[in-house]
Design goal:
The structure holds two protein chains of two kinds. By secondary structure, chain A is an alpha+beta fold. In chain A, about 60% of the residues lie in helices and about 10% in strands. In chain B, helix 1 packs antiparallel against helix 2 and helix 1 runs antiparallel to helix 3. The longest helix of chain B is centred in the first third of the chain and has 37 residues. Classes of the chains: A alpha+beta, B mainly alpha.
Chain lengths: ~625, ~70
Amino acid sequence: MIREMVRLAVWGLTPQRPEVVEALHDFGLLHVVSPPEAHTPSKEEEALRFTRAKVLGMLEAMEWKDWGLLTDEIVDRARDRVDLGIEGVVDEIDRSLDDFRNRLAVLLEERRRLSFSLAELKRAHQVVFHFIPFVSAEDRPDSHLSLWWVKSESLQKTLFGLRNQLQKEETAEEGKEVLRYHVLNTEKGQSVLAVSTPLEMEEKVREFLRQRGAVLWKAPEGFQRETERDSLRAVEEGLKETSARLEEIAEEIRRAREEWGPRLASLYILLDERLEETLVESGSQTRGETFLIEGWIPSDSLDTVIPLLKERFGDNVLVQWRYPSSEEWHRVPTLLSNPAATQPFEILLRLMPHPQYKGIDPTSLVAVFFPFFAGCMIGDAGYGVLIALLGHRLSKSTAHPLLPPVGKILLWVSGWSVAWGIAFGEVFGDLGHRLFHIRPLWVERSHAVLPVLIFTVALGVAHISIGLFMGFLDGLRKKHRHLWMERLGSLIVLCSLVGLLLLVRLNLPRPFFSLNIILLVIGTALLLVGGKIGGIIETFSALGNVLSYVRIAAIGLSSAILAIVATRFVDVLGLSFLGVLMALVIHLLNFVLAIGGSGLHSARLHYVEFFSKFYQGGGKEFRPFTRRRLSWKKPS
Amino acid sequence: MEKALLALAASLAIGIPALATAYAQARIGSAGAGTVAEKPETSGTMIILEAIPETIVILGFVVAIMMILQLA
């Protein structure tokens, strides 16, 4: 149902404008309409925007993401402590934020620097870990040790050349090994070569390796020492110290996040609310010593708002209201209001453009047909019970605001799944029949395909006819002659064609034929007057839409056969672990497909086939001027 | 032989529209994903566009079922 709206005008004395705006903000019932003139931001507005952006930036820098845990109590506590309406408060908050931000920035900068250093140290540690034993063994006063980056493909050639070069040296003592080395192959086609030679050969080794394109390995900056062994030790210690310091910083930021995150988030909300109030104040019309705020309000809320305004401001405010004229309907915001049982189905309308004021809210019809179709597609009592358990679990969930309505929709679907499961005699496919000899109340759809097909086409005729009838009513209400004539014409043509089909199948008496032909002529005439050739094409499209409902039978059939196949695995593989496992896996797959497929196709039948007959989007959503409550979401 | 031809015809009646639908949905889906990424409010329209080619398979299914019933 779409709530009826009235246009409300609140007149008051200019000095009292902030108080009146604050009161309207507290009531949270008015959809404020500002005049279309260009708006020049005031200094206060700019300061609020700037501070709000700064707070959000700080929350993101602290990586605070617990918007879902923010409660009304925390925000209300902050609201009691901070009055942003007092002059200079925003500037004072801004200065405090700067102090806090500077301290946070120091920590974040240190973390950035250390993270970079840690990444370098980790790369170096691979070398340290590999060479420490070799370096420790070779670290003698009479030998020289160095580490080199060498291309892996030329490593053997380089080593061979180096050995030859050193053996030519006369200083080499007879029988003493002049070259000792150790190699680490890294993943990028590079190797690290540790070379230990007598001290006097240091220059020769350096020269030779440089000529072969090798590059001297160095510990990261800040960890280079006189000897390679000391450098490697420094890297190892540096790695431990840097990791420890990073953990300390992470802990400090975590503490700051836990302590300041909710406070800053509350402050963000207060600043946002204050900014909204400022915008409403600056958007109100000033006439001499008075101001005027206009907006839309649900008509049944008048009894609440007017006495409250009078109670707070007495005769200093004047309240006027009126119903919108038909010329204004396209400007009136739309507020849906449905009973608790059907309200969850409103989420299915969110994918469509918002309904127009004085349009049709199809939520109740969706609540009837969506679970009916989905249940018919699933058509298995066993799956229905599982869906009920899942729906119950989701309806109690607080992890995401969308989960409870989805859970409630699943509960509806589960009811119809069980009902259709009884009609088709299916409990986890044919398991119910095998174990408990359950028989179908109506037909076994895996064998009797035709009755289910005919039933779904009949369902399509009924659903499309309801859609066309709604479109006809909508056209009448909006006094849109072409619309109602076209919808009525389509409806009459559809009924007459169904009548003719029944006539042929059931051999009905001749007068029925004449009646149907007369209906067909009347319907075609209405179509031609209402929608011309387009109306005729629209009717053919409606016939195609009716056939589209066959998908209910098609998807149901595939689901039923897959469930039977799952149980057959036990026949083929025996009552073994593998047989039962395979049966469970196929049932699980079928269950997931049943939920996904039935939901998607049921939604599609509504969006494409049903809504196209009457639904007109393009309406404006009702957005009351209200304080942030639990429905508040993370800012984008 | 007649039965075999009927079975082949039934399989073609559903197979060819299924391929055509798959091709159409792949093209619409990739374009739709791009559109929804830029304008999330078009999700409803995109679902409708994505769902439109499915009707071909449904019609193919009806034809195939009618053939199979003749076979029986």
